[in-house]
């Protein structure tokens, strides 16, 4: 396998656990996508239409600021991008990350966690955000796959 990075956004720790397992299985470097202004539990209240996450997800052009510059991706062939599913897609902070990176010629592999939603809408949307990259369908990581399951999935991607 070529050199890979696992970049992830995690609001509550669930996606972070998945990202760490994936990075270990892939022998990949790890990068946390961190918002300049952290999300509070109040910000994440999807039942409140005025919460920060609801407002951001209601605005397709919303791009929350990152806490730090994106890493240099020139040495990576594949970038796994992880996130919790918000409103059937990736959070806008992930869009900020994707658009700030030079992903030309790279393979992007989404992975996500969610209580009930799938990843297909996020993967499709991500293809539109980074047309210069090859964005795969990705995988949901709710089931906490074992290291051997992750390794088999990664081999199957043909990276």
Mean pLDDT: 94
Task: Bin the strand percentage.
Answer: 15-25%
Please mark out the parts with pLDDT under 50 across 5 or more consecutive residues, or reply none: none
Helix tally? Answer: 5
The percentage helix is 25-40%
Quaternary assembly: single chain
Work out the radius of gyration. Answer: 15 Å
Termini separation: 6 Å
CATH superfamily: Flavodoxin domain
CATH architecture classification name: 3-Layer(aba) Sandwich
| Domain module tally | 1
CATH class: Alpha Beta
Which topology does CATH recognise? Rossmann fold
Sheet having the most strands? 6 strands, parallel
Taken from the alpha-carbon principal axes, the silhouette is globular
Q: Can you write the helix and strand succession as a string?
A: EHEHEHEHEEH
**Number of extended strands:** 6
Structure class: alpha/beta
Account of the 3D structure:
- The chain is globular, with a radius of gyration of 15 Å.
- The protein is built from 5 helices and 6 strands, in the order E-H-E-H-E-H-E-H-E-E-H.
- The longest helix is centred in the first third of the chain and has 13 residues, at 14-26.
- The protein starts with a strand and ends with a helix.
- The chain has a single domain (4-156), classed as Flavodoxin domain (Rossmann fold, 3-Layer(aba) Sandwich).
- Strands 1, 2, 3, 4, 5 and 6 form a 6-stranded parallel beta sheet that branches.
- The protein has 159 residues and is of the alpha/beta class.
């Amino acid at each position: 396998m070529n050199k890979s990075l696992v970049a992830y956004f995690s609001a509550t720790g669930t996606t972070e656990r998945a990202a760490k397992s994936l990075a270990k299985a892939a022998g990949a470097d790890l990068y946390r996508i961190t918002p300049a202004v952290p999300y509070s539990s109040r910000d994440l209240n999807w039942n409140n239409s005025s919460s920060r996450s609801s407002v951001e997800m209601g605005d397709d052009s919303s791009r929350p600021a990152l806490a730090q510059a994106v890493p240099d991706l020139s040495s990576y062939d594949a970038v796994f991008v992880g996130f919790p599913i918000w409103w059937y897609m990736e959070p806008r902070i992930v869009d900020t990350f994707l658009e700030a990176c030079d992903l030309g010629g790279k393979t992007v592999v989404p992975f996500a966690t969610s209580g009930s939603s799938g990843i297909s809408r996020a993967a499709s949307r991500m293809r539109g955000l980074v047309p210069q990259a090859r964005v795969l369908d990705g995988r949901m990581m709710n089931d906490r796959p074992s290291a051997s399951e992750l390794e088999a999935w990664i081999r199957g991607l043909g990276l």
